[in-house]
Amino acid sequence: MKSLTALATLAALGLASAASADIKIGATMSETGPAAFLGDPEAKTLKMLVEKLNAAGGINGEQIELVLYDDGGDPNKARTFATRLVEDDEVKAIIGGTTTGTTMSIIPVAEDSEVPFISLAGAVEIIEPVKEWTFKTPHTDRMACEKIFEDMKARGISKIGMISGTDGFGASMRKQCLGVVGNYGIEILADESYGPTDADMTPQLTNIKNTAGIQAVLNPGFGQGPSIVTRNFQQLAVGLPLYQSHGVASKSFIDLAGAEAAEGVHLPGAALLVADLLPADDPQKPVVEAYTAEYTAKYNEAVSTFGGHAYDAFQILMQAIERAGSDDPSAIRDEIEKTTGYVGTGGVVNMTPEDHLGLDLTAFRMLEIKDGTWTLVE
Amino acid sequence: MVTKRVTLLILAILVIASPFFFPSSFYYRIGSLIFVNGLAVTGLVILIGYAGQISLGHAGFAGIGGYSCALLPAHLGLHPGIAAIVGAILSGAIAWLVGRPILRLKGHYLAIATLGFGILVSMVLANEAWLTKGPDGIEVPDLGLKDVLELVGLDLSNSQFWYWFSGIAFVIGAWVALNLYDSPSGRALRALHGSEIAARTVGIDVARLKLQAFVISAVYASLAGSLLALQNKFITPDVAGFMHSIEWVTMAVLGGAGSVLGAFFGAAILTTLPQVLTVFQEYEQILLGLVMMLCMIFMRDGLLPSVLRLIRGKDK
Prior knowledge:
A: alpha/beta, B: mainly alpha, two-stranded antiparallel sheet, 76% helix, Peripla_BP_I (chain A), transport (chain A), Branched-chain amino acid transport system substrate-binding protein (chain A), Leu-bd (chain A), amino-acid transport (chain A)
């Protein structure tokens, strides 16, 4: 009978939390586990924003109650928590799904129970094909590819070599890049790869160096791989422009590669990373500066783009609830889809029934590493 | 010991009566997870409780079962239900291949071999992205049975359907395991658990019986993995992860590795616990380890047999 006792305890907990409802928002994030470096700033950001909003009087005169679960990056747990949020906590909307895996297992729950769901994960599969109740805030790998190719094209580069990691991030971005490269009239003459734990990429880079006609090299990758590529690239004196992906847009990349080797590396990055470099008339400047200031003051740690995704998801949701004037999930969904001109940390969001992301390429800034730090190109 | 008929009766009543106490349909989801875990743990009861062997890689078989439901329909056009059965046969065959050389040896070599096997499966699932779509996981097609039931007028919600479906699967699994317990094979298994040398001297083919138990338990784990994949409609390599194997072994040991009813209680407690203690998510693995240690020190037969003995002891 132990299980019944446990169920009864569960029931009691469930009923207790159901009693004090204003507007309930649910979230399941990977605060622990392998994706904790993504989920932790997301959860912290949400808690901070809810606290601030409630202190300022809530929304439509009602307080926001955040029900937050930690799925540890396990898609099975994420699905269970999503079910719990919908069936038991009866939330009006869900934010979360830190990873693509957790997001994909939350989607069927949100779609079946008709609750709006804003994901914080990267993959383009989340919103393509468009699902009625599912939205997302982070830009996709494909957009990073497009931003890079746009920059190459502007510089008159038409023949490139590519060296990609075989990990999830690298493999997915390589696929997306191959898919859109034709649109920019760019040809990939060499397509090399390396394993996630490889310690030397000299052979692959030598192949690229020896391929005639290559004008630039692109390295879709995540983690330590791109740092090693950058080092080897300098050691071999390849002498071509090197493009890295948004996956390395963190200070630790420059530290690992060394300021000397990283000098002149191009990469697309979010405005949030270069908040202090943005020109004064940049529409995103006030948003990213305010978020950075608030977050660092409260948690005493640097902001990351991941926390920024949660920030955008929360603001989009709150604005939708405000416009809807009610907490009816269906009305909220319709208003999320009508989001236009929202300026967030990730860019300017204009959603449509066909586009549940709503970001264009301006979401990315082309950065160049100079003297061991980021500088804005253009 | 609780007899076969009583055990089945208790399980059937639990499956049928529990929904009357559910305050919301979320509890159907928890219920179905308990049954899925219960099914896998019942397989472990056959292996650990009957045959006295330990497997630390049973989640690997769940991975095979789960990914069969995702990959076979996508690549070969098989119905997901058939795919689950093919997956179970595949798991059984692999268990036979892995177990055949190892189970001839005495001692806990199976634990080491399965530990490696489980990690191998999850690595293959994560790294062979061309086939499995890698660590981000892959979608699993709908079983389609719910729609058929709807046609005959039985309109169940998703969680309700999976509660009943996995509940029935679990009771059938328990029935098979209980029959095995009373069969000549089951008696022989228990004999070799008691003393391998004694069993050998009375003419029991120890290696063959152990292998049989291992293959059967692998099929259980595979079917549990398929059930999980089908109800989540999505699967990632996490399902084959090492911690998942450990979770199942802990459930079996906690509930009482020797009895099917114990398997159910072990699964029920450890499936509900994280839901009650959501605030302790960070410490879940520490708690698992602690539960296992305390069980081994204070209740070596597991929770259920120990409690039963306590009650009987008082009666006397």
